[in-house]
Design goal:
The chain is an all-alpha fold. It has a single domain, classed as ABC transporter involved in vitamin B12 uptake, BtuC (Orthogonal Bundle), CATH 1.10.3470. It contains 14 helices and two strands; from the N terminus they run αααααααββααααααα. A two-stranded antiparallel sheet has the order 1-2. Strand 1 and strand 2 form a beta hairpin. The longest helix is centred in the first third of the chain and has 37 residues. It is globular and about 70 Å long. 43% of the residues are buried.
Amino acid sequence: MSTATRQAAPPPTRARGDVRGARRLFVVRELGIGLALVLLVAVTTIYNPRFLNAQSRKDLMLGATILVVLAVGQAIVVITRNVDLSVGSVLGLSAFATGKLFLAMSETPIVLAVLAGVGLGLLCGIVNGALIAVARVPALVVTLGTLYVFRGVDYSWAAGQQINAADMPSGFKRMGTATLLGIPVLALFAIAVLVFAGYYLRNYRSGREMYAIGSDPEAARLSGIPVGWRVFTAMAISGALAGLAGVLHAARFGTLDAAAGNGIELQVVAAVVVGGVAIFGGSGSVYGAALGALLLSTIGSALPVLRIDPFWQQAVVGALILAAIGLDRALTARIASRLRGRRARGA
């Protein structure tokens, strides 16, 4: 083998090493989020030991369930360097539609109600995806518009009506309070969504291509990746998961009106960013987004226990977002510097 050939062989190995190194950095970041969550729970429990009794643990899991489901869908969208601001409105529309379905047909099977809610959310996601991928309108503009459109449809449909828990089937309401091995049934939905989404992004080519699109959309397009179709798919998934979150919201709270999910989209984006998904796309994971959602939900529960003014919650979340963005930029700069150094040594 010639000298030139021996020198040309190492780059693929170095490239794989660079990828593994980048992954390790982001895994460390997610571990840091988990550590912050553990510390928060520990401090709160020391202050008030009842914070982790059986009922409190159940409430913490239920409180994070809906946010986790929404954060998983949002993370997939943000990885492609887009954003979906309509998830709160889709949740509200799906939740109210679920209640209306039970009012019209009280014997509707729960599985059918879940599928109907997911289907309505999927339809909303398809509308978003079509406008973004086909019409090539920026996702921020499209989803900001559909946020108001879907919410307007919800308010028009509700016309001031409120659906009470007494009008909902007992089996559906039990789903919102039942547990399996100490874990709320609704939380099991979130766990299933998280595991499936994580497996899809890691093991399927179409999932990995979403990272390529977020890293450099133009390069991904030149590489033959169907950028429009992948972005369309990400928006459809986000819509479907927002629809599922609406059904879970209906099961948990029972009492429904057109304001359900109002403003939650900002919490969802915050959870994704705090969870380590780069706002500029191309990096992060749904597991980190779920940790971010759990952290924000726990902060909301812990501050009153610690007798801290709830208004400080917004300040804490804002500080976490700024810290996450700063850390993301620092990690990106470190990775880029490492790559330049290895390329220089290779040359």
